Each structure stands twice: as structure tokens, then as C-alpha cells.
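stage 2 :: seqdesign
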């Protein structure tokens, strides 16, 4: 698929000189453009290069068919990867939680920037929260994990399976007097706090759900910069190093290894949350029964020998393999269709 004509984003003082241009591939949704612009600006200034955004419209963006009929959330990633492999851009920016856990031959993750808020956010009418939504209230989400969590917390709510971009979802929230068609009207939607923040829509949040009670998708709130697996230009290498955040990379690595170890797809009802604090890489993961009536959680910690990338990667593998073994040992594979929408 050919990218639309790219827009040039000048990288500051060098704009009038002949400089290296780094072409940054991105999905063309408002969220993807916002987050890519933010990271591309930092990449450009660290690389002392000009950055050019290459928006790529994927079939997943234009089709209103269900994601599973299109082949899962991996449809977004694969169109971007095709453009990268075809040399139409030098680096692509993904939302990490939408990126399949299997490595793509010839490509590698070049950087994981500092992660934004990993929490889910309830955006409800009239300041309502999970506890105060009235019985039968209609809550929109398309995520099997969020559905299971909602059913567990409030079996009396009506869950509405929705798709679409963040603004479209928010526009459906309102009271009966809000002028929204009854069949579309929702009392609340559940969204990632990070996406709302990047779009400047945090004002719509009525409750931030703490990760301890309400863990989120592996990689939520984090981005990944993917490049071809050969030595990048000096400028690109410099830019990648500058935007990479080792603690975030280790945490999302551990979370994604849980998904991979369970052989689960990114739409499976699985939550994982890892943090690297001063000494410890702590990982907790939960597999839900889709109807919310049961869950299995496992938590482990590892102590990396140092903060070097190699030791952090080892700690991530170690902690994830213990969490996966415990989840499977406790019957996680019987609780939920883990392979659902595996990419
Ligand atoms: N699958 C959709 C998706 N992919 C990344 C984000 C938002 C932010 C993020 O987690 O980086 C969202 C929207 C949402 O879940 O509300």
C-alpha cells in the first residue's frame, strides 16, 4: 500500500541546511499521528536530523468489519512493516500493545520510549465511576480483557461491544438528554489513559483505575520504534538511543513474554503489569474467564545484576517464565481461549 504524501516536520535549527532526513512511518489515525509526532520530534533533535512523517492507511483503519475478521489487531502492524521492508520509511512507530509478540524476520525493536500511564480510564457521563454507574448502565469496550474485568466488578452492567477511534467512542457517552441516538448512546466507555492523554482528551476521564485492582494489557501505554535489522545510519542510531528508556523496555518485555509464553493473542483476556524500581523487576499477570466469574493471578520478582540491557533482558525472561509456569500450572489455559486472535 502506498503511503499518502508525507508531511515534513522541520527539526529546528537545521531546517535550512542539507540534512539527513529520517522518514517515520505511522498509522494515519489521530492517535497514531499524535504519538508519532511527539516521539519523532525527539528522535529528530537527538539525531540532529529532519524527520518526515509517512502516514500509512491500513485496511484496518478503513474497514468497519470486526477486527477478528480482518485477521486481528496485527493487520495494523503488518501494513507498517511492509512499508518499512519496502524502504518507504526508516523507522515505524507502533503502540506496543497492538504489536504481535512474535518477532518479524528482518526487523527489530530499536527503541521503547519512556512509558506513559499504563492505566485504564473510565469516561462516564455525569462524573460516574465503576461503583456509582446505575444498574444496567451501558458501558462500551471492544476488549475481551476489559469486558471480563467489567463483568467481574459489576455483573449488572450492560457491556456494549464497540470499535472505532477514541473520539468516536467518547462522542457516544452522554445522558438520555444528550441528543445521541438511543441505540448508540452509552453511559461510559473504558479507554487507555495514555491514548486519551496523547490526544489531549484526559478531561473526559471520570475515574482512573489502579493497576493493582485493574491491571491492563501487556505493553499498554508504551510505544515501540521498529527498524530493519541491519546497522542503521549513525543519525538514526543516535536518535534511537536517545529516545530508548531501559526500564520501560524491560517492563514491557516481561509483560509481552507472558503473552508469548501463554501463546496468547493480543485480544486474549490477559492483563500484565511490570515495573522496574531501584532493585527489582516485579511482574504480575492475570488471566480472566471471559464471563468474569474467575481469574488466575501470578506475581514474581527478579533482581537484575545490573541495569545493562543484557541483564534487564535476562531478568525479564526469568520473571516472565516463572509467572507463565504458575499461571499454566493453576489452569489458566482452561479458563480462557488464550489463542483467540493470535497473530
Ligand atoms: N487497541 C487500541 C489501542 N492501542 C493503543 C491504545 C492507546 C494507548 C496505548 O495503550 O498505548 C489504544 C486505545 C485504547 O485501548 O483505549
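stage 2 :: out
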Amino acid at each position: 500500500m502506498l503511503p499518502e504524501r508525507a508531511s515534513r516536520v522541520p527539526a529546528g535549527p537545521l531546517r535550512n541546511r542539507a540534512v539527513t532526513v529520517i522518514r517515520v512511518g505511522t498509522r494515519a489515525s489521530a492517535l497514531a499521528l499524535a504519538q508519532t509526532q511527539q516521539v519523532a520530534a525527539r528522535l529528530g533533535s537527538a539525531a540532529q536530523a529532519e524527520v518526515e512523517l509517512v502516514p500509512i492507511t491500513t485496511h484496518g483503519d478503513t474497514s468497519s468489519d470486526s477486527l477478528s475478521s480482518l485477521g486481528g489487531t496485527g493487520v495494523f502492524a503488518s501494513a507498517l512493516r511492509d512499508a518499512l521492508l519496502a524502504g518507504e520509511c526508516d523507522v515505524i512507530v507502533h503502540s506496543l500493545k497492538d504489536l504481535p509478540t512474535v518477532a518479524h524476520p528482518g526487523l527489530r525493536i530499536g527503541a521503547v520510549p519512556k512509558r506513559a500511564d499504563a492505566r485504564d480510564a473510565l469516561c462516564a457521563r455525569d462524573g460516574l465511576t465503576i461503583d456509582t454507574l446505575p444498574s444496567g448502565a451501558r458501558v462500551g469496550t471492544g476488549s475481551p480483557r476489559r469486558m471480563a474485568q467489567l463483568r467481574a466488578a459489576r455483573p449488572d452492567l450492560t457491556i456494549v461491544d464497540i470499535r472505532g477511534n477514541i473520539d468516536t467512542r467518547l462522542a457516544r457517552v452522554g445522558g438520555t438528554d444528550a441528543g445521541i441516538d438511543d441505540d448508540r448512546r452509552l453511559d461510559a466507555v473504558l479507554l487507555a489513559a495514555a491514548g486519551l492523554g496523547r490526544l489531549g482528551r484526559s478531561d473526559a476521564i471520570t475515574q482512573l483505575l489502579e493497576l493493582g485492582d485493574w491491571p491492563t494489557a501487556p505493553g499498554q501505554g508504551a510505544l515501540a520504534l521498529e527498524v530493519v535489522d541491519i546497522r542503521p545510519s549513525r543519525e538514526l542510531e543516535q536518535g534511537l538511543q536517545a529516545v530508548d528508556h531501559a526500564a520501560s523496555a524491560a517492563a514491557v518485555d516481561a509483560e509481552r513474554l507472558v503473552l508469548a509464553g501463554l501463546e496468547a493473542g493480543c485480544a486474549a483476556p490477559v492483563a500484565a503489569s511490570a515495573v522496574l524500581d531501584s532493585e527489582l523487576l516485579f511482574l504480575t499477570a492475570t488471566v480472566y474467564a471471559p464471563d468474569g466469574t474467575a481469574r488466575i493471578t501470578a506475581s514474581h520478582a527478579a533482581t537484575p545484576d545490573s541495569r545493562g540491557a543484557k541483564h534487564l533482558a535476562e531478568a525479564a525472561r526469568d520473571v516472565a517464565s516463572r509467572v507463565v509456569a504458575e499461571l499454566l500450572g493453576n489452569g489458566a489455559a482452561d479458563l480462557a481461549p488464550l489463542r483467540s486472535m493470535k497473530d
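stage 3 :: structure notes
- The chain has three domains: 1-113+222-244, 120-209, 246-343.
- Residues 77 and 99 are 6 Å apart (CA to CA).
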